[in-house]
Design a protein that fits this description.
The protein has 576 residues and is an alpha+beta fold. The protein has 3 domains: 131 residues, Immunoglobulin-like; 134 residues, C2 domain (Immunoglobulin-like, Sandwich), CATH 2.60.40.150; 244 residues, von Willebrand factor, type A domain (Rossmann fold). The strands form 7 sheets. Strands 17, 18, 21, 22, 24, 25 and 28 form a 7-stranded mixed beta sheet that branches. It has a 4-stranded antiparallel beta sheet with strand order 4-1-8-7. It has a 4-stranded antiparallel beta sheet with strand order 3-2-5-6. Strand 13 and strand 14 form a beta hairpin. Helix 6 packs antiparallel against helix 7 and helix 8 packs parallel to helix 9. It holds the Pfam family C2.
Length: 576
């Protein structure tokens, strides 16, 4: 992941300049100016001792990693794995990629949950325990493989967690592969099989780390899986002769998937066109003299591409267009009262102002003209008191642009003095407003980011979901910052990190929404600079990957960077 922040003391990047280096989603460390020695990838697995049933009645289906701040020792969420099916020995596919500094102590905490619903709110799931360690402890263990007990539930043994670290190479290639299989073993009593593939790369100690899992194809012995894209770094870390093991399973609802067989290969073998592999089940092979295989797997296509980065597009001239939409509903409170979320304190920004400034001041560096549309919703407008869910903060609907973030702040304060806070809280109009502009520019030259700052429960959820699903096909992302004490469960539903959002049976093409509650970033020590830096980093962290996912799906390549500027050489005139 990339952070879009500008480190203190640096000039902001120009169009052809470099992107400032920030750590991955985690701690904002203003004290550290070190350049990381390396990036490491952490893989997480859980194991239970003996027997068919685990000693703990619940099985981890989600792992959440936290890092600890240097100053106040506060634990902050770094990232989450995917949610996996019930299985006694879960191997999480999603990795944690961290900067590793030899000279720094990085405290880590791994929390494990049994997931009971689609909610991203961890308090709504069963906590199963945790494991504490340092990044150095993992890297320094034999084979960079640390195994520790999961603790946290008194009187219960919940097995162990295995965390493996591997230094990442700098290979930027990715490969698009597609596989099919023929005559796989029948595993289901009443049907055929529900096969899927698991790809694992070998480690130096002879163990294997999972790196990809295909979808399940139901009730067939001759499946054709969808093509998938995987980085060469994830597949073999740039070592073309490294052993890759592919396991074939029959999916079972309870997570006890039946092993069909396996085969081994390597990146080099795959790239040379080795297309058919015998699926071997070692137990069957040992028992049956005439055993040939448990089916075959065939490589249908193998296409290598060089992965491009967010910075490649920025260097090539892609513009990031930033739009802000502010909630003017009555639930914010009377702006003239100190209890209002819109209160104009002469000595300090309110929550809306802080969120707007924190995010806007960073993203404005990627927009060359610094002209930003600023919208409001949920207010009654002068002179007739009509309710609007899409009005220009500067009062000019034909030209809602404000110059810079300071111009947006000025228009916001002016609007507070002229409109009447009302309701309801409708998002769809402002999302559709930005989507109309995004729909007109699909060539990769522009990308649109909408920041919605709101205080309450959304009123047009069905329409908003439909707008987001439609917008997921366009070059745009949506950031939602929730201010105030309200419950934001509905907002978290819009953030597709756990479950992809859908409307009328259609799923969003991409995850384009990032939601954060502002209250999580209120620094109890009163250091608003640090807490707003964390807010900006967390809400912007997903933008580069969302941006790249659009470009990849559309097959849009970055334009070449313009040549560096060379000043003209003055011609010296000789006086006669």
């Amino acid at each position: 992941m990339f952070g879009l922040e500008k480190p203190a003391g640096q000039q902001k990047p120009g169009r052809s300049g470099g992107l400032p280096k920030m750590a991955s989603v985690g701690d904002f460390n203003v004290l550290s100016s070190s350049i990381p020695a390396t990036k490491v990838e952490l893989s997480v697995s859980c194991r239970y001792g003996g027997g068919s049933r685990p000693p703990c009645p619940l099985i981890p289906r989600l792992c959440v990693l936290y890092t600890q701040a240097i100053g106040n020792k506060e634990w902050r969420e770094f990232g989450r794995t995917e949610v996996i099916d019930n299985t006694l020995n879960p191997d999480f596919v999603r990795k944690f990629i961290m900067d590793y500094f030899f000279e720094e102590r990085e405290n880590l905490r791994f929390d494990f949950y049994d997931v009971d619903s689609k909610s991203p709110n961890l308090s709504k799931h069963d906590f199963l325990g945790q494991m504490f360690c340092t990044l150095g402890e993992i890297v320094g263990s034999q084979g960079s493989r640390l195994e520790k007990s999961i603790v946290g539930i008194p009187g219960k043994k919940c097995g162990t967690v295995i965390v493996t670290a591997e230094e990442l190479g700098c290979c930027r290639d990715s490969v698009l592969m597609q596989f099919c299989a023929n005559k796989l073993d029948k595993k289901d009593f009443f049907g055929k099989s529900d096969p899927f593939l698991v790809f694992l790369r070998s480690n130096e100690d002879g163990s294997f780390t999972i790196c990809h899992k295909t979808e399940v194809i139901k009730n067939t012995l001759n499946p054709v899986w969808q093509a998938f894209n995987i980085s060469v770094r994830a597949l073999c870390n740039g070592d073309y002769d490294r052993t890759i093991k592919v396991e074939v399973y029959d999916w079972d609802r309870d997570g006890s998937h039946d092993f069909i067989g396996e085969f081994t290969t390597s990146y080099r073998e795959l790239s040379r066109g080795q297309s058919q592999f015998n699926v071997i089940n070692p137990k069957k092979k040992g028992k049956k003299k005439k055993y040939v295989n448990s089916g075959t797997v065939t490589l249908l296509s193998f296409l290598v591409e060089t992965e491009v980065s967010f910075l490649d597009y920025i260097k090539g001239g892609t513009q990031i267009n930033f739009t802000v939409a502010i909630d003017f509903t009555a639930s914010n409170g009377n702006p003239s009262q100190p209890t209002s979320l819109h209160y104009m304190n002469p000595y300090q920004l309110n929550a809306y102002g802080m969120a707007l400034k924190a995010v806007g001041e960073i993203i404005q560096d990627y927009d060359s003209d610094k002209m930003f549309p600023a919208l409001g919703f949920g207010a009654r407008l002068p002179p007739d008191g009509r309710v609007s869910h899409e009005f220009a903060l500067n009062g000019n609907p034909q030209n809602p642009y404000c110059h810079g973030i300071d111009g947006v702040m000025e228009a916001y304060y002016r609007s507070l003095k002229s409109v009447q806070l009302y309701g309801p809280t409708n998002f769809a109009p402002v999302i559709n407003h930005v989507a109309r502009y995004a729909a007109s520019v699909k060539d990769g030259s522009q990308y649109f980011v909408l920041l919605i700052i709101t205080d309450g429960v959304i009123s047009d959820m069905a329409q908003t979901k439909e707008s987001i699903v439609n917008a997921s096909k366009l070059p745009m992302s949506i950031i939602i910052v929730g201010v105030g004490p309200a419950e934001f469960d509905a907002m978290e539903e819009l953030d597709g990190d756990m479950v992809r959002i859908s409307s009328r049976g259609k799923f969003a093409e991409r995850d384009i929404v990032q939601f954060v509650p502002f209250r999580d970033y209120i620094d109890r020590s009163g250091n608003h600079v640090l807490s707003m830096a964390r807010l900006a980093k967390d809400v912007l962290a997903e933008i580069p990957e969302q941006f790249l996912s659009y470009m990849r799906v559309r097959g849009i390549k970055p334009l070449p960077a313009p040549p560096p500027y060379t000043p003209p050489i003055p011609v010296l005139q000789t006086q006669i």
